[in-house]
Amino acid sequence: MNSRKLRLPLLILLAASFAHAGEIQNGEDVLRAMHDRFANT
Fold it and tell me: In terms of DSSP H, where are the helices of 1-41?
């Protein structure tokens, strides 16, 4: 029962990470994404 409770949040996190992974192809894309994310902070 305990593993079932942990499975859903893990699946949600994996799905969210794979959704963004398609946009990043190389190191420059990583730097650009980080810059865009933190430019207003």
Answer: 2-21, 27-38
